Amino acid sequence: MTRHATLMFEGKQIELPVIEGSEGELAVDISQLRAKTGLITLDPGFGNTGACTSAITFIDGEKGILRYRGIPIEQLAENSSFTETAWLLIHGRLPQRQELDLFREQLNRHAPLHEAFKHHFEGFLVDAPPMAMLSAMINTLSCFPRRWNTATPAGPDEEFYEEAARLISKVRTIAAYSYRRSMGLPFIYPDPKLPYVANFLHMMFSMPYEQHMASPEVVEALNLILLLHADHEQNCSTSTVRVVGSSQANLFASCAAAVGALWGPLHGGANVAVLEMLSKIHHGGISADQAIKLAKDPKSGFRLMGFGHRVYKNFDPRAIILKRSADRVLSQLGVNDPLLDVARQLEEKALTDPYFVERKLYPNVDFYSGIIMRAIGIPLNMFTVIFAIGRMPGWIAQWAEQHADPKARIARPRQVYIGNTISDYVPIDDRR
User: Fold this and answer.
1) What angle do CA 318, 397, 223 make, to 5 degrees?
2) Would the CA dihedral through 296, 300, 305, 309 be positive or negative?
3) Which of 138, 146, 164, 258 ranks highest by number of CB atoms within 10 Å?
4) What stretch or stretches form a coiled coil here (predicted)?
5) Distant-in-sequence contacts of 60-69, Cβ < 8 A, 24+ apart
6) What is the 8-class DSSP label of residue 192?
């Protein structure tokens, strides 16, 4: 039996259907609200608005739950890899061994960029932001049909999966080349003998005369960062993919737009803000105790970045996993870095301070991912790029899910107009 919510407006009663998700989440279906009443809803930031139904990712912020296709993130972090998780998100199930082997082969095959891409990179200033290059180059992929290095797939589904593998593979090559361009270093070709993450680090840090071989601990840590960022429900950049994709824009245009959304400091730039805060504390001669005290004073203007989360009202489950990884990496590398020392001191203080504990302001995924990436030598301007590489499978899965939905419509939010009422044009000489 369908449940309904009742809306009373100007003496008229309207019944609105209530939709229940597979995990018991309830939503009032207002799709016919304007047609029946002339009303629209106002929800700045869409914090109370469900724009779609989705079978990809489930989050329960109160309980600290994150699942991809129903599988708890803890199980994937323990047993899976980024590439297998990418396949899971896009296909909706775990792969058979031969399917995973084929996917890895596709990723290897698609890793090189067309040689003409080098000329596009040369068009950027050396100090151009890597995120700007990443967005532009993902769009540029639309201009380079994949048929130059692979056979034509048998049908539309196979063509989409091939394009998905192409984008997931090439985004790390583009990212590495963006970094090399910003450093004035020669581009390093991908090595087909290396797995996904190790290959990316090779393209980032190798030199023509010396190949960079990352330690297993570093590869595992970066693999975890990518896996834990692979999807996160309808966040800003994912919503961007769906809004742009709703116009029937292609996969590359939609994901390039998502990179722009991710670039913002309130979204993908959050771990950059963590390192900038740590630098401010260190260079300002502020102790961890003083920083904690300032964070608790609303008049100080100081904000402790990397603590708490808009969605998770308890521990961020990704942070719990990355904390263990950060401990291993820092121990293995033996890094002597004052900013990382500040981070560990803040973590220790915040986890025991009653103010933070009572408000459940625990370190989040951005706090630990920033620590790990600094420890393994990834520069600050590449942090958000790494985030984009990790989120790419989720963006692709969301784009595909939307395009497969026969009820999907072009996104067209309404507004409540608060500007001038009708006003006459005034000739320029008569204006006062």
Assistant:
1) 40
2) positive
3) 258
4) none
5) 60/23, 61/309, 61/311, 61/312, 61/313, 61/314, 62/313, 62/314, 63/314, 64/312, 64/314, 64/315, 64/316, 64/317, 65/317, 66/232, 66/317, 66/318, 68/230, 68/231, 69/93
6) T
Q: Are 177 and 111 in contact (CB under 8 A)?
A: no
Question: Which sign does the torsion angle of CA 175, 176, 178, 182 carry?
Answer: positive
- Position 149 scores a pLDDT of 47
* Residues 394 and 89: beta-carbon distance below 8 Å: yes
Angle between helices 383-404 and 236-245 (to 10 degrees): 40
pLDDT of residue 188: 96
Is residue 251 domain-shared with residue 147, that is, in the same domain?
Answer: yes
Q: So what's the pLDDT on residue 146?
A: 58
Residues marked as catalytic: 309, 366
pLDDT confidence of residue 58 = 97
Taking the C-alpha atoms of residue 93 and residue 7, their distance in angstroms, rounded to an integer, is: 40
- Residues 120 and 174: their CA atoms lie apart, in Å, by 11
Query: Whole-prediction pTM value?
Result: 0.92
Q: How do residues 262-314 score in pLDDT, each as one tens digit?
A: 999 889 988 898 889 999 898 888 888 899 999 888 888 888 888 888 888 88
Same domain for 239 and 300, yes or no, is no
Q: 112 and 258 in one domain?
A: yes
Contact 274, 364 (CB under 8 A): no
The Cα 391–Cα 270 span in angstroms is 15
Which CATH number do you get for residue 45? 2.20.28.60
In a domain, 381, yes or no: no
**DSSP for residue 152:** P
Residue 347, in any domain of the structure: yes
Q: What is the pLDDT of residue 147?
A: 53
Structure token pair of residue 182: 């910003």
Residues 230 and 323 in one domain: no
258 and 274 co-located in one domain: no
Q: Quote the DSSP letter at residue 300.
A: S
Which pair of structure tokens corresponds to residue 14? 């309207």
Phi, psi of 71 (to 5 degrees): -90, 125
> What SS3 state is found at 377?
coil
Which pLDDT belongs to residue 71?
A: 98
The sign one gets for the Cα dihedral 231, 237, 241, 243 is positive
